[in-house]
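Narrative progress, year one. The postdoctoral researcher (J.K.) led the effort to move from monomer predictions toward full complexes, under supervision of the PI. The following entry was the first complex the group processed end to end, covering 758 residues in total.
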Amino acid sequence: MQSFIDQFWPSTIDGLALGAIYALVALGYTMVYGVLRLINFAHSEIFMIGTMAALAVLIGLDSQLLSGFTLIGMLVLLAVVAAVFSGGSAVALEYVAYRPLRKHGASRLAALISAIGASIFLQQLFARWVIPEYFDLPKEKGALPVQHQFVERFNVVAIGDFVVSNDKFVIIVGGIAMMVVLDLIVNRTRLGRGIRATAQDPETAVLMGVNIDRIVTATFLIGGVMAGVAAALYMMRFEETNYFVGFLLSIKAFTAAVLGGIGNLRGALLGGFVLGLLEFYGSSIFGSEWRDVVAFSILVLVLMFRPTGILGESLQQARA
Amino acid sequence: MTSNDTKTSGKSAGAAAAAKSTGAQDLLAAAAARARRRADRAPAALRFVTYLLVLPFEALGGVGDLFRDWWAGLPGYGRWIVYVILILGAIALPSQQVASFMSPYTDWPTLLFFPIGGYILLALGLNVVVGMAGLLDLGYVAFFAIGAYTMAVLGTKYHWSFWEILPVGILITALSGLILGAPTLRLRGDYLAIVTLGFGEIIRQTARNTEYIGGPNGIGGIPHPPTLTEWAFPDAEPFTSLGLNGVSPFRYGALDGRPYYYLMLLAIILTIIFVKRLESSRVGRAWAAIREDEDAAELMGVPTFRYKLASFAIGASIGGACGVIYAGQAVSIVPALFPFIVSATILAAVVLGGSGNIPGVMLGAFLVAWIPERVRGLQDYRILMFGGVLVLLMVFRPEGLLPSRRRKAELAEGTGGMGSLGAEVGGPGTQAAAEVTK
């Protein structure tokens, strides 16, 4: 318990920073789930593709240690490139692996298997072909480090134990900003109304003139873009990636989505932060090797007492 | 009904026509008609490719239907003859002749034991949960791991024999199924999926973090099952030409994989009998009711929670039995043997084969276990291909290779037992357009 008190502020900041990344990835799950009732298992690979795109930019520009406006410019560039690649591959994924099933009225189980297959395929594609071919690294090498660190770290706030470094600050602020933008899109725009209508009742939505295929494409695109931004933030924080980087992180992100109430955008944010914080608090008490066990135990406990997550499901419930 | 009619009639009528027609030509024509209907829904540019890809699956499904009809019309003694032939075939399976074709790269009997036999047993167990009761379990490997660790701990630390541990392991895994199920089975569908996934990870990581059971290094020196009898296949004709003469099927040594295969075979046969009996019992009907509409089942007086719990415990105990048997052969086990991908693969086997249908599930498990081994020549790309094949199969044959007839009917209704995708309303002319749930 003493270690928990000693580590309280560092754990809090680390937990929030990780939680923001969880939340951004969780959005992709929660949007797709809200509209299609499908656990998009390959979303982890969408995130992985984003980190790879960011890494390619860093290697291509041969980036040195950056600070000030060049660092901000670099981050924006990374986020845009990663978002383009992630969003594009998410749309392609929907078109190849899910759309035919949707048209055929296949069971959700079949769609889930298709998703798992796509996830395995993309992971192996990077492990066996893309990484050896384009990143010039041996197969199955664990991590792909950035050659030169590109973020010059300094502390934005330092009051006693309460220390926030610039990268964590950017992650937390950037994550919340993206969430606000998305919330506005879903709640205020015409596209958002279409998404909510489809989530509530696809049949009526069609009768009201909503183009379902376009809505589904947009949903995957938004989820992919959020994962891309999360990937850029992840690269800034950890400066390394590998072909299975998405796997555990995405399981956690999905856990976060369920924790907050799946299909609920604000729930994803809340769930991400709660999970990130509890993970770090848990590992400061039990030791870091129990971090994942703590995360999943929390999930089971929360669902036992609140079976639809903290905030409940809402994308599909009437909240127009 | 002639094959010409099937082109215009509905899907179920087409299937019925395929089942009734006896000639291979009719069968092919009906399959072609179904494939054409499938292809009509694909984008124009892909229509012909879709047709070519769907056709073999439809033909296979037609043969399956034909076989099923033949089976349904078979008198009792005829079925027993088929059972005996199948069992004799399974006994002859590890022979040299089969091995040279099936497995040129690895030891065939060992491969037959695990992954092929093991996956079949696991898929049968998961089928109880997913295929029969319609509960999505993404952490099934946890029960396999618990069974294996039970064998390892009791075998190395308490020096129990395999035959004592087997029932204990089954009990412990059934209990763990109850412990996992009791708090979580009140959840619906996808919440259950993520909780079971989490459970699988908890078990693996707990095993890795616990020093008592070896941490990340696992447990070594697990004893083999004690030999039952030294009796060997006689040096007589069918055995000699199969290369099985002199093999003792009940002597569990370190070198020969065949006795373990026979052990697994016995477990599989017993499991099939058990599961088959369950399926056609009151319990099986309750599961089907829960799978198709849980609320309706509850209203009709089915104690859904109790039956869901039962399916979890039974599925778990089959997985546990497989774990015990596996550890009895493997000598050493480590937590890394039980990652999520095993759960995913077993689930893929169940869905691929046709969930709910026992021969289908076994076929799926066999393919999922065997294909990656058979194409070992392709080395690096086999898992990549596995992923791609999963997507293609689901895109072109979402109901699985050999779907159960009841499941097929559910699919035609658009619910597929486990509910369908949310926004499945396609453009005009799609079959699903009028069948949206929720």
